[in-house]
Amino acid sequence: MKLFADLLASSKATPPSTSGVGPRIQQRRGVEIKSAREVEIMRKASHIVATVLREINSMVEPGQTTGDLDAFAEARIREMGAVPSFKGYHGFPASICASINNEVVHGIPSKKRIIKAGDLLKVDTGAYFDGYHGDSCITICVGEAPQLANDLSRVAQEALMAGLAQIKPKNTLLDIAGAIEDHVRSHGYSVVEDYTGHGVGRNLHEEPSVFNFRTNDLPNVTLRPGMTLAVEPILNSGNKACRTLRDGWTVVTKDGSLSAQWEHTILVTSDGCEILTDRDK
């Protein structure tokens, strides 16, 4: 499985950016409990992400390009005093991932990629503010999208909320994963297992891996107040199998089926969780 933990294990600390492109990647620190000061900074970073995604959701229409959305996102993130988390991260060339239809994750925006009516568009972005990241993804059904696209997106969002409902101290990652997997399977869809959620904070991807399916192959961490996690169910309408295109980034479904993703950065609290990237705030 190409888990975010694998990226962390292979990465080394890099010097701080002097070009405004990409924050530094710090050494691994294990699962971190954030202080009140750190949480407040993450609220601000996450609010920037939520604002950008809310605005993109309102502005998307057929005829735009994914490159247009990327330029807008980068400008807005910088306007609000942050740096795009994705741009330059492990060499990624843009500020958003824009994945359409059977593209699962990590789609590279382009001025040549025109958004069409009926497309199922996933927009994932992050903001690095005062040393900490926020990270979130939405799925947009463009125009009069097919019923399957609308249903898949709805179930993915419901699965995310089912997972978040399991977040409270003394519960574990398997409680989150089980709730997500059960909801997805009850609607006849598959959970992508090649990619997971993750801890988030000083680094965009931190421990632990927040998986969306039952497994004994990953650490089943017990949740504690102060943990900050990115929970992100990824669903396919067909088979769970994926492959990476020759650009080295874009992941697609092997069978050509549709894929949907929703993600929030959350804080584990004393009695549940706070959605830091809530777009309604």
What can you see in these coordinates?
The protein has helices spanning about 5-10, 35-60, 65-80, 145-165, 175-185, and strands at about 85, 95-100, 105, 120-130, 130-140, 190, 195-200, 205-210, 230, 235, 240-245, 250-255, 260, 265-270, 275. It is α+β, with helices and mostly antiparallel strands. The protein has a single domain (about 5-10, about 30-275), classed as Creatine Amidinohydrolase (Alpha-Beta Complex). It has a 5-stranded antiparallel beta sheet with strand order 8-7-9-14-15. Strands 1, 2, 4 and 5 form a 4-stranded antiparallel beta sheet that branches. Strands 3-12-11 form a 3-stranded antiparallel beta sheet, with no helix packed on it. Strand 14 (about 265-270) and strand 15 (about 275) form a beta hairpin. Helix 2 (about 35-60) packs antiparallel against helix 3 (about 65-80). The model is unreliable at about 1-20 (pLDDT under 50).
Our count of domains comes out at 1
* CATH level-3 fold name: Creatine Amidinohydrolase
Proportion of residues in β-strands:
15-25%
Largest sheet: spatial strand order: 8-7-9-14-15
Instruction: Report Rg.
Output: 17 Å
Global morphology = globular
Helix content: 25-40%
Biggest sheet descriptor = 5 strands, antiparallel
